[in-house]
Each structure stands twice: as C-alpha cells, then as structure tokens.
Structures
1.
Amino acid sequence: MASQPFARLRSSHGGILYGGDYNPEQWPQSVWKEDMRLFKEAHINEVTLNVFSWALLQPSEDTYDFSMLDRIVDLCKENGLKIVMATGTGAMPPWLTKAHPDVNRVGYNGEHFRHSGRENFCATSPTFLTLAPRLAGKLAEHYVQRGDAGKPDSPIVAWHVSNEYSGFCWCDRCAAQFREWLKARYGTIEKLDEAWNANMWSHTYHSFDEIDTPSGLGDGMPTPNQYVTGHAVLGGYSLDYRRFYGQQVLHEYELEKAAIRRADPTALVTTNMMGTFNDYDYLDWRTDHAGAGTGVDFVSWDSYPGLGEDAAAIDLRHDLMRGVGTQKPWMLMEQAPSNQNWMPYCYVKRPGQMEELSWQAVAHGADAVQFFQMRQARSGCEKFHSGIISIDGTDQSRTFKECAALGGKLEKLSADILATVPQAGQVALIFDWNSWWGLQFSVGPTSALDYVHEMQRWYRELHRRNIAVDVVSATDDLSQYRAVIAPCLYMFTDAMTANLRSYVSGGGRLLLTPMSALADQNDELFVGQTPVPLRKEVGVWVEETDSLAPSTPVPLVFASHAPVTNTGTASQPNGNMLFNIVHADPRTQVLATYGSQFYKGTPALTFAASEKDESGRTDLAAGIGGIMYCATMPDEAGTRDVIDCLLAGRHVREVESDPLVEITRRTAADPSGHDLVFVINTAEGARTAVAPESGVDLLTGQRVSQGQELELASFGTVIISVQ
Ligand code: GAL
C-alpha cells in the first residue's frame, strides 16, 4: 500500500514530523549547539539536511568528504532529531561545471550557461547522470554503514532527491536524444509527419536528422514572429519536447533513487514537488507508476502561497498533490515560517497565519509539517527570507514563538491526527498536464484562458460549500465519485474516453466545459461534430466558439425546471470569455440559455441523461447519471448555479459556513477511531462558525455540541474529534 511510507515514518518516530531545511554548513559550528537548544524549545523533531551541499561533500571529482555532514548528523542524533536526508544534487559544485561544461544547460535562446544558481543541470548530460547518482549512492552506503539509515529506528527516515526539479535544456545533445526518442515513439519519419501534421508551413521532415528542438531560436521563437510567441507552430512537436524532457528529468531521479535503494532496499525516497507546476507531468512521478518501485514513495511538496491568495487556491494545490500521491497522506516539505523573499512583496505572515496554513495542509492530508528554513540565512540571496530562528538568533521573535507554539500543539495532537487519513472526495476534479500544455501552446481561441484558473473556478465553489474534492487523473477509477468535473479537458486518449464513458454509463455524472474533448495527444483536432469522442453521450454539437473580452459578460438564463436553489437571492449569473454555440439533441435537456448576443436563447447549459430511474424519470433531481455540458465559463454566480444543477439529487454532503471559514474532515483510519473535523478561519479577523458535529475540541479540550456557535479567533482553528 502506498500509505505504508507514512506508516513507517510514523512508527520510526511516533508522531508528526515537524522541522525542515537545516543548513548549518552556512554557519560557524559555535551556532549549532544553540540551534539544538532552540529546536528543543520549538518541539522540532526533524531536520532536512544536505539539500545544497554537493560542493562540500565532493571537493573534486575523485574526492569525497562527508566529515562535516557526519558531525551534523551526529549532533542531530544526539539531540533525538529525525533526518530527511537530501542527496544534495540540486546545485552543482563549481569544479564540476568548469571541468564538464556538458552539465550546464543551454537556454531557450541558445545561451550556454556557466556555473550559476541551482536546479539547472542538463538532464541528458552523461557526466551529470553518472556523478549525481554516484553521490546519492555513496551517501546512502555511508549512512547505512554508520548505522544511521536502513533500520526501522534509524535517524534517517527518508531520502530527498535533488530539489524542486524544474526547467529545460535546449542543447545539441538534448536535440540528438530527442530525435532518438522520436524514432522510438514514431518508428518512421512519415508517421511523425503525420502525427504532427508537419505539412503546415512547410515543416515536412524527410529525415529525423532535420529535427531540432522547439526552442526560442526555432519554433518557440519569441521574436520576431509575434504570432507564435509562447505558442507552438506544430502542437505535437512542442508537446513531444515537453514529454521527452520531463522523462529525462524523471530518469535522472530514478537513477538517484536506484543508487539509494542499492544501499538500502527499504529506503523511502521522494523529491519535493511544487503543486500546479507546469514544466513536468507529475502524474508520471506517481508511486510505482511503472509497477517497479519507481516514482516517489510518497508525495512531498513545497507550499508558498502568494500575497492575497485565498484558501481555495492553496487547497487546490494540496488536493492536486494528494491526487498525485493517489490520495494518500503527504509531506509538507517546505513552507515559509513567515515571509518569503522571492515574491514581489515580502509580506510577513500575519499573527496566527502560519499556524492556520499548517492546519489547512494537515486537514488536506499532510502528515508532516516542515519549513524552509530552520535558521534565517545571514547572507546570500535568501537573507531576507524568514527562518524559524530569525536573524536575532533567539527565541524572542514572533516567528519563533508561533513556530514553537505550533510545535507544542502538533506534539500533543500527533496521535489523534495520525490515527486519521485524508477524507475520500465526493466530487472529483480532473487535472491533466497534457491538456494544460496543449491549451497553452494553442494560438486562440482566447488569450484569456488560464488552465489553473479554470480549475480554481470550479474548485472554489465546491470549497465554499465545504465539499470534499479529490483531484484525479482522467484515467483514475472514478466510480466512487458522485460527480466529476473535467474543466478544459482538451486532449483525449482512447483510454480517457473509455474511462469517462464507463463512469457515465455506470451512473456517474460528468461536467464538461468549453475547450473539452477537442484534440488527440498530438494536438490534432478531432474531425467531426465537437466534442467528437463523447458526441453521443454529451447530447450536443458545438458548432462555433465565440470569444469575447473578459469584460463582456453574457447573461445566463436558467430554465424554470433547472434545479437551481439560489435563483432570485443572489446576483445575476453570467457567462464569460468563451461561448460555445451548441445544438442540443432532442433528448438533451436545456437547463440554461444565453441572454444576449446573436445566440440569445440558444443552450448554454445542457444535460444528457445516460439512464432513466426506476419510474422512467430522466431529470436531474432524481439523481440520474449523464453528461452536463457548460458551454461558457460562468462567473461566480453562474458557477454556483451550474454546481447546483450538477449536484442535484446526488446526495453530496455540503456544510454551510462563512465563506472565509473552511470545514474539512480527516476520517478515522480504524473504525473504532474518531474522525477529525477542522474548522478553520482562513483570514484575518474573528469569525464564527456553526459546529457541524459534536465532539471534543482537541486544541482546548472543551466539548463541542453540534449546532453550537464556535468563536474563531483571527486565523483560529477548532479541531473537533467527533465522538
Ligand atoms: C523553495 C526551495 C528552497 C528555498 C525556498 C525559499 O522553492 O526549495 O530551497 O529556496 O524556496 O522560499
């Protein structure tokens, strides 16, 4: 079971891991002891070591020196800390980039980089692919030999490969390997030409040797041809480079993982992901994706909310990451104790906000709460980034005090929290990296479309209703969900079509939106009546797509039979941005029409039932399955009404609350255990909430009765152990 890794992390430590990135090598040793004292005071029980120490561990190609790391490990051990050990390969030593320039990337515009920053290795560099896994293997061997890893009670509880993998290389070697990858994928150049429809703009290739990378010097041209800036001339070409490069990066990870596993076959291995991160398809990194112990053993990710982001934006990323980890618990590998300095404004977290964000993560499945970083850097480009220990070096800062207070609470509540698992979603939201890339590479039909915003549009409304959502892949088993939403699921494979069909024919209810089911995996539009793959089931034909400026809404007029509960009580619903002009089949119910433009009165929201209930009814309120088609991007009021229709008769559990209060459940892992309900005030200022269940507030020990009004302090949380 994929939940095993966390079971093992727990049993080795007995509780929630609380700590994070610790970089004592950037400080004189005299400071380390004081760190240990302060960690104890803050209830820190874990440190993530060695994230960027390659140059210290390997001063030259043939010399390894782990002595400083050994001293750090020993100190941590003496102080009872558990360790997440990084392989240190996220930043390269200067000798390496000098002696072997093949490790350096070539940029999008052809610049050959020299030593710089971090997370910038070329994923096809033979030197890197040899030396990085070698270092990972040597570290693992060394710490197994020392007795620090490889046993159930070892201080090293998990391995952290590299750091936040990101970006691309556009060098000639990558181009050559891309050609090999294409040969393996397509077999012949004719098949490739056909897949990419390369006759467009005289791109017909007669040999694989003619193919370069779609870089800024090629078909990704940033100038002078503005028409294709950031877009693709041939969608299949640009998409394939994404896929190819992402697979090379994953391959690099797998080599490091294999090297660790050779030394310690029981090692738990992960790398820190970044939520709605565009570069690589994280679904390829899923645990055991290839059935051979590959991928991440558990998901870990770094949560850095931007200024002003609401709880729904943050939780969507938590839920996506949980979905990548097949809905199992995950590790919050990094968050900022207070401000992060790399965003335009270094806002400090408001009093209580760091704790609130931590509970949000736990409520959505985090079984570990960690930070970047333990002590604020004294120089370098992260000197204005917060640390648990601020630059004053004492326990007197607000940041330290808040971290220490949270540490105490986590320690106290650890057993109760770890006896629960993330709740099962009632509604699923399909996230698909290929569709995201395909839309972003497309020229038109609107430049206003943002795939992640489309996810948020739907997620936010479910979040407002406190509905449990799972973010899933289009080929995951959907049968358990009462409704499935597939925003802008642009690219289809046969497997996706079959999966969605079987969900709907099995009684499921699916919502499709504009830009859904339009293209195959090569970005070739399906020829026929749109949406071709599901034309029969969806019961509409999309004839045209109108695109208007975002400031030009079109009213949505809901039919009197539409199961909208809010009519008349809130603002007028509108459609925005894209307006599909559709013809509904005779059996298709029209739930809303457009209220203006030349398509006034034509369908804007439809439902085609896939079945009848026992008395022959096909209406939504009877709960029957089928496909709902929303032909435009609804605004907030419109989204609320569409969701009303989608969920009608489906018995989805909703919990009412102030919009700034979220209510999220973790369910007891064992039937005799207690569910936990997190009632979280996600914003500044006091608020109230109605207790949805009776039980005991774990933070105060006080009894809570269902229906009771709970006083929530600014960013305050009540955790009800349901009993
Ligand atoms: C993360 C990174 C850390 C640190 C942090 C600062 O993206 O993994 O190493 O730089 O940002 O917020």
2.
Amino acid sequence: MDVYRNLIGGDLVPAADGRTLDSVNPATGEVWARVPASGRADAEAAVAAARAAFPRWSALPALARGQALRRVARVFAEHAEELARIETTDNGRILRDTLHKDLPGMTVLWELAAGQVLDAVRGDTVILGPDTLGLTRREPYGVVVGVIPWNSPISTFSAKAAHALAAGNTVIVKPAEQASASVLRLGELLADVLPPGVLNIVGGLGEEVGEALVRHRDVAKISLTGSTETGRAITRASADALKPLTFELGGKSPNIVFADADLDAATEGVTVNSIYTGNAGQVCVAGSRILIQRPIWEEMLARIGAAAAGITLADPLDPRTTMGPIVSAGQYERVRSYLELAAKEGTDLVFGGRTGADVVPALPGGYWVEPTLYATTDNSLRVCQEEIFGPVAVALPFDTEEEALAIANDSPYGLAAGLWTRDLGRAHRFVRDLQAGNVWVNTFRQMPPGLPFGGVKDSGYGHDSVLSYTREKTAILNTRS
Ligand code: NAD
C-alpha cells in the first residue's frame, strides 16, 4: 500500500491529526494508496509556510525564478513513466494519454513558463509631460491557492503552479480527494527542487481543507479547475475578502457536423478524440452533444457506432487499451443515474448503455461504462443540458446553420465547441457566434500550452497564464522636484 504525505514548508508530513483517505484504483475497485485527509491545521500550516517563503521568492530576479522552473521541467521528463503510471492507477486515465500526451506536454509547459518570467515583470513607461513619467509595475499576488480536479491532476497542477510561480507567487495546491497520488508524488520529487514553502501540496476533502484554504485571510488569489457548483461555493466563501478568482469549470460542449465535412475526420473527431476514448468522457471539454446535419444523420450515427465498436475497454495500464473506467464509485453511480434518466426522458438509445462487469469481465470490480449514444430532437432534456462527465453523448439533428447555432448556444455552459465543415465562411461565422471559450474547426480537444484556455457562462471566467497571476500598479513621477 503506497502512503503519500503533504508537502508543507519543504517537509513531507502526514495530516496533523494523522487522518488518511483511501485512494481506489477505479479499474479494480481496490484501495491501492492512502493520502492525507488534511484539515484546518494543515491549511494553516501551508498558508504560513507559503507566506513566509513569499518575500524571498518574489524578490528573486525573474530569470533566477526561470532557472528554478527549468529544474522542475526536468523532474517531469526524468520521472515521466513513474508519474504517468501513478496517475493511471489512481484515476483510470489510460497510460497512452498520461505517458505519451500529458507528461511530455508538462515538460513543455514548465519550460514555456520558465521562458515567460520576464513577462511578469514587464511594465509600461508613459511620458506624460516633460517632467512627468507614468510607470506600470506588475506584481505577484502573494499566496495563491490552486484547487484541482481528479480527471487530469498533473496537467491542472502544472497549469496553475507553473504560471503562479513564474510570476513570483508562492503556491498551495489542493488536489482532488478521488485522485491526488500523482500530485502528492510530485511533492516528494519537488521537495528539494524549490525553496521550502514556495510550493505546498495538501491532500484532503474539498469541504474540509479546501474550504479552509479558500476562506483563509492570507490567501490572496484562488484558481479552481472543477465543477460549476464548487465555483459557486468558492465565490461565496471568498466574497467577504473580495479575493480575485479564476474559474475553469464544467461544460456540455457541442460538436457540430455539417454534410460538407470530411466525414472520416469528423467521425474520429466526435468519438475518439472527444467523448469516448482518452478519459472515458471525463474531460471538461468532452463533445457530449453531437449535432448532425439531417442529410448525413443516418450515415453519421452508423459511422460513430462503428468507431465506438473499435474502442478497447480494459486495464488502463495496458498500452493497447483505448478507454478506461470511471474514476470513482460516486461518479460511476452518477453516470449510471443519467443512463436511467435518458430512458425516462424518452431518448432513443443508438448504442451502448451497459455498465460494470458486463463490459470488462476480466476486471469485474472496476467502474466500467461502455461508449453510449442517445438520439433526441429535444435539446431541453436534462441529458442535453447537464454535464454527465462520462462516455455518454447525445446526438441532435439540425437542418440549417441558424438552427445548429441556436442548439449549440442553448446551454448554461460555454467551455468549448467543435465544428466540422469545409466551408470557410461558415467556419468564421461559427467562430464568431458560438458562445464558447474555445472553438475547434475540423479538429477537437487541442489545448496547446501557451494559448489561453477558459470558458464563458457557467464554464467560468479567466484562465491560467503568467499574467493572470500578476496585478498591475501604476506610478506617476513628477521628476522636476
Ligand atoms: P469538484 O468541483 O467536485 O472538485 C474540484 C476540486 O474542488 C477538488 O479538489 C475538490 O476537493 C475541491 N472542492 C470541492 N468543494 C470545495 C469547496 N467548497 N471549497 C474548496 N474546494 C472545494 O470537481 P471534480 O468532480 O473533481 O471534477 C470534475 C469537474 O471539473 C467537472 O465539472 C469538469 O468539467 C471540471 N473540469 C473543468 C476543467 C476546465 O478546465 N474547465 C478541466 C477539468 C475538469
């Protein structure tokens, strides 16, 4: 049994009161690790450590901070295999993705952040008059808290920590209780790489240590990647102190296929790279509503069904596996409740719908849901409006551009949207009119480091970047006296 500890002030420590949480391997349903169940005392200790480390870290020349971040990037490269295996064991995200996509991407992300340290200290000079000079300075906030979800712990950890540290903040990361082992292991690997207290990691429940951190008076900024409900809870908890917030929240993204599209590419784009493989639909940008133009409706349903039939559900550590399990018993029950709801709401089952040992008999304790597609003409159904966060999509037909746009935008969420067409004018119209933070045309789920990634409406606001972890100060100097 692997036992992980918090990283606080450079020390690897258990929760102050010794409590732990079980971490379950979702492919087997078995407990494989224990993580700290931190509470208020641990939150206090982490904030004190981050606060103590802030003056020196923020005063360090920016290029020296960049050097430190490059050392972190090397840790990702040197321990890629180990970290990928831990994350795959912990949350079921297939090794193909953790090892071959996420970890190489993290090395790039940390190196890119290291190269952006000067952006965090770059200001404007404005000559306001012969003896009057205007200056702007960018400054770090101080102690930053990053709250992250379970579906991509290493990626979301990096998006927050790398940028916040590059800007001169000190950081506390709170990984999700369902899957925090990879981030806690990173804490072990980074304990001697960064000065004590500059990066702190505390595991535990959102309503305990998470709440204690976001309420803490010495926390200057919070960045959450998680559900819309948690975004609302953090807004309420931090309202009195008017803390600046960045929210990357849920989604119900439309993937829109026009009859003129390259249908081979579109089929791959709406199935393999969108809702089913990778993380079994447990991605914030999952294209969970597939809008199909009527002339190709039957053909696309058949194509999507054939592509889904080619997906291999099995042990996520096996490199041949193309789809893994649902992360936890709780999330598994939630996804299953939506399968029941889809039937109650009168949708047509196109394929899928089986769960558990029927799907992967070799691993009967795992939380398996097979790729599932429903069809309906009613976008107001709950299965079309609510985020399911599993390998469950709904297909909706449309005739015209206007109708497709109306269905796409008829959602409380606005994280991402995909468009499949060869018509350049239409592509530009949809890029302009889709209410989403990210629009992909003839591609899907591309989130290269260095480009903004955020949402609109209930999907949140802001995004993680070096500049987002700085605030600006203006100075006016009268140089005559
Ligand atoms: P969640 O909101 O339940 O939990 C996210 C994190 O918030 C966890 O660390 C949790 O412990 C913490 N938390 C919960 N309540 C808290 C509170 N009151 N105070 C402080 N912290 C609290 O989300 P989840 O189930 O872990 O992740 C799935 C959700 O995340 C989905 O909605 C998904 O769309 C979203 N997500 C969004 C993005 C994005 O970039 N937009 C990326 C990945 C996941």
